[in-house]
Amino acid sequence: MRAMLLDRPGTPLRLADVPRPEPDPNQVLIRVHACGVCRTDLHIRDGEVEPGHLPLILGHQIVGTRVDTGERVGVPWLGWTCGRCRYCLSDRENLCENARFTGRDIDGGFAEYAVADERFVFSLPRDYPHLQAAPLLCAGLIGYRALRFTGDAKRVGFYGFGAAAHVVCQVAVHEGRRVFAFTRPGDLEAQALAAELGADWAGDSTMQPPEELDAAVIFAPVGALVPTALRAVAPGGTVVCAGIHMSDIPSFPYVDLWRERVIRSVANLTRADAEAFLALAPEVPVKTTVTTFSLEEAELALEKLRSGAIKGAAVISVAA
Ligand SMILES: [Zn+2]
Ligand SMILES: [Zn+2]
Predict the structure, then answer these.
(1) Which residues of the chain are modeled with pLDDT < 70?
(2) Which ligand lies nearest to the CA atom of residue 162 in the structure?
(3) What is the CA(160)–ligand 1 centre distance, in A?
């Protein structure tokens, strides 16, 4: 089959002809239609997040068809958990000590076929074509988990308005919250998309919002945004860091955290998150804006993601 391989972090993905994967007894073989491109793929490509093995096939937002049953399914980042560790036994499988992740420990979806543990594949809402469904699987799922950590915040700021924020903005508006979108300075296209999707306000991340926020979610991998967001949230407000990797957080005066402001991160997802979000998405209904690339163009997609040139979510179209 055709696949894009990462030979070594820091080097471009390479198109290769490799054997079709053989499913283990608990796995299913999936013919891939589309696979979303996530910032985590870029972090692995760039060596900021360690690959589980090399060469590696990236991609953890897989939309495909089970070869055994013909059912269309989605495969997310969380690919396997042990079921025995203290996290698994306390409904926190997202923190499993032995977890394996799709596109990191298990070869992912930048290929014509993939295998996945049967317990970690999900049926997808019918009304979503393959390309539009792909971003639901990480941008949507983990973004939704991050939004839940803002509690009942009415005024929510999103720092970084890419794949995740463009999905979660719609959920937040649906829940009656007001969204304030912060983009890279001058990214008018992302600001226009935010306004289109119901944000109350959109501006540069260097700006203060027009009023204080009850919570903020940082999707951009930029540690300097943590003190910026803390200064924008009201006492008691939470700043949620939604990414798997972030540049160092600069020191800041304690007064910015004082008065019960909270900083927390989000790690991975649980199967319950996947079930909840995939049921909610068609109710909102979440509409995904996608920029499509062919399998051979996966490296180009990552480059564009790095430079901030993607509107909405990048998706690799593999096969109809
Ligand atoms: Zn992801
Ligand atoms: Zn575990």
Answers:
(1) none
(2) 1
(3) 15
pLDDT digits (tens, 9 = 90+) for 197-246: 999 999 999 999 999 999 999 999 999 999 999 999 999 999 999 999 99
Ligand 2 centre to CA of 76 (Å) is 17
Question: Which ligand approaches the C-alpha of residue 97 most closely?
Answer: 2
Q: How far is the CA of 38 from the centre of ligand 1 (A)?
A: 5
User: What tokens were used for 8?
Assistant: 């070594």
Q: Judging by DSSP bridges, how do beta strands 178-183 and 155-159 pair with one another?
A: parallel
CB of 161 within 8 A of CB of 311?
A: no
Cβ–Cβ < 8 Å for 203, 227: no
Sequence-ordered list of residues with C-beta below 8 angstroms from that of 183, at least 6 positions apart, any chain: 160, 161, 190, 191, 194, 202, 203, 204, 205
Phi then psi for residue 266, to 5 deg, are -125, 130
Q: How many CB atoms lie within 10 A of CB 210?
A: 9
- Ligand 1 centroid, distance to 121 Cα (angstroms): 15
Ligand nearest to the CA of 268: 1
Question: In order of start, what are the domains of the chain with their CATH numbers?
Answer: 2-135+269-317 (3.90.180.10), 140-265 (3.40.50.720)
Spacing, Cα 95 to ligand 2 middle (Å): 7
Task: Give the number of whichever ligand sits closest to the CA of residue 243.
Answer: 1
pLDDT at 320: 85
CA 169 to chain centroid, in Å, comes to 14
Alpha carbon of 138 to ligand 1 centroid (Å): 5
Name the closest ligand to CA 99: 2
Tell me the ligand closest to 77's alpha carbon: 1
Res 37: pLDDT:
98
CA atoms within a 13 Å half-sphere pointing along the CA-CB vector of 237: 22
pLDDT of residue 59: 98
- pTM to 2 decimal places: 0.96
